[in-house]
Each structure stands twice: as C-alpha cells, then as structure tokens.
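user: can you give me the structure for this one chain? tokens are fine.
assistant: on it. calling the predictor now.
[tool input]
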Amino acid sequence: MSSASPPLGYTGGRSLGSGGIAWLNAGWIVVVAAVLLTLLGSLSIAITEPSLAKRQLIFALLGLVVAAVACVPSHKVFSQSAWYLYGISAFLLLIVLIPGIPEWLVRPKNGARRWINLGLFEFQPSEVAKLALVLVLANWLRRPTSISRWLGFFTPFAIAIPLVLLILVEPDLGTAMLFIPPVLAMLLVAGARKKHVAILILGVLLVAPITYPILRPHQRDRVDALFAQLRGDDRYARDIGFQADRAMTLVGAGGFFGNDRDHTQALVRNNHLPEEHNDMIFAVICCRWGFLGGLVTWILGFMYAGGAVVCALSTRDPFSRLIATGIAAIVFTQIAINTGMTLGVLPVTGITLPFVSYGGSSMVSGWLATGIIFGLGLRKPRNLESLGGIR
C-alpha cells in the first residue's frame, strides 16, 4: 500500500462534476483576506468620504455575488471560455478609444479614456483584461511544448501585447505594467528555463533607461520628481510631486500607532492629499493606524497572495495551478507598486490597492478573481486533459 499522502484539501469524497468537492481548502485563506482588506478599505474611505464608503460596501456586496457565481463553473468552462473573455476585453478596450463615443458612455478624465459608464459605477475594461490574460495563458501553458526555446518563451508575451498596447493608448502606463509579472510567474510555473527569465529581466533593466525620452511629458516629470525626492530635493513638491510629497507627510504623521479619527481627518484635509480615497488610500491607513496599520495591510496582502500560491501547490491540475499563480502575481504586484508610490520609493502611476481603494470595477473584478480561486480549490479534478479541455 502506498504511503503517499493526498494533496492539501482533498477529501476523497463523492465526485461531483469533474472531481471531488473539498469544502476545506486553501481558497478560504484568499476569501478571508479579501473580506478583511475590503473592511479595512471601507473604514479608511469613511474617514474622509463617508458617502463613498457606503457605496464601496455596495460594490463589495455585488462583488460577493459575482464571486459566488464564479465558484460554480467547472475547470472545463473556464478553459473553453478563456479566449472569448480575451476577445470581449479587447473589444471593450477599443470602445473606450473610439472617437465620437458619447460622453455619457465614455467620459475622459484628466486626458485619459479608461472607463465605461454603467450607471452604478464606471467600469474599467483593463480590470477584466488582466483576468482574461491569466485564463488564456493558463490555457496555453497547461500543455507547454516549446517554452524551453526562445520562440515558445516569448509567445505568452505576444498574447499579452494587444491588450497592453490598447491600455497604453488610453494612456495608462501603470496598468499596462501589471500585465508583465503574471506572464513571468506563469512561465516559471509552467517550466520555463530560469536562465531565460533572468536574461529577460536583465535586458529590461538595461533597456529601461533608454525608454526615458519616449515617455510622455507627465511620465518623465514623475520620474524626475521621484529621483529628486530620493535626493531630498523638494523642487517638485508643489507641482508634479505634490501628491507623493503629501502622501509621505501623512504616512510620517501616523507614527507607530497612528492618530484618532478626528485628528486623521484634519491632517488629510489640511494636507489636501489628492485621491485620498483611491490611489493614496494607503497614506490614510498609515495616518490613522500608523506603522501597525500599514503592516496589517501588507500581512493581509501576503495572506491573499500566499493563499493563492497554496491553492496552486495543492492541485494536480496545471490549468488551476497557473490561474492561481497569475492572480497571486497580479495582486502582489499591485500592492507593492501602490504602497511603494505612497512611500515615495516608486513613481506615482495611479495603481489602486486591491480591495482597499475606492472603485466599483476594481472591487468587482477582485472578487471575481477570488471566486475563481475558491472554485478551483473547491474542485479537485484528476487532470484537465481528461476533461476535454481545449487550447
């Protein structure tokens, strides 16, 4: 008799659909982390925008419904629908860029065209595009035949390029950058050579400085402001560097334990922090609850990404493993970039803090991803190949 132990979360119970149902699985870690991050975000938004905090809870409830629905489909359904979702995402990204689209449907903000008005909230197609890319790549890489060679290694990047280019035209450089980490992470999990990944990363680091002249003027200004800030030069603190300067001031004002609610409200209001309920919500968290609040945010982020990784490690199905890996990479990258720009170590790029920053499309898409991960952990298929999955 074999002494090998079953994978984590396997119950050996009755088969339902494509595999057994494992009610006790690592997906609960992801769900609990998402709930706590959502509550933290709502409490933080309520400090300066109580009405928006109530709307955020409505978005969260809608997200929970979407997550519950996302738990139902089998692995085979996600495999078969991946390219359709990719096509829909590309179409919606095109919609926001078409000249002449009425403003009641697509309203430009600060020169950018990124949102479709759905009434209850403004939907950002790039949020769904990130998830669509993960599903398509998981479908593509589950049977890797040539990623050990350079041509096969670059194929996933070629799949991502159309979506990235459309997002760059909006323009939204920050979101476009989020498409690269999941590709790299999924390639590694699929069995790509670490040498190829290392060479690519080194090449990007060497080429990145050369791209400075082709950046848009405001993007170059943000890079200049960051380096000036790191040198202690405050020449940009009243213009392009104002947001980062105010965010760091509020983070510092929080100290180790933070301030009471009224004092936090006064500090945020008097410092005129832009986007305090959205991109810069981490500064409000640190001002209100200090270093401990920031630490809790990071712990919950690690908990979410770590739970997704555990789900990936506990399944025998490569498709499920790749999806969980891609989502974990996206969430971790967003947290790192958002908190990094708030702390003044990265340029301000407009990246939101998952489940915490205000926004309907970000919240709903985050819970959609959470539902998919939980559904993958819930079912333990023998192998997607035996389910008739398609590339």
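assistant: here you go. The chain is about 65% helix and 5% strand. The chain has one domain: 19-387.
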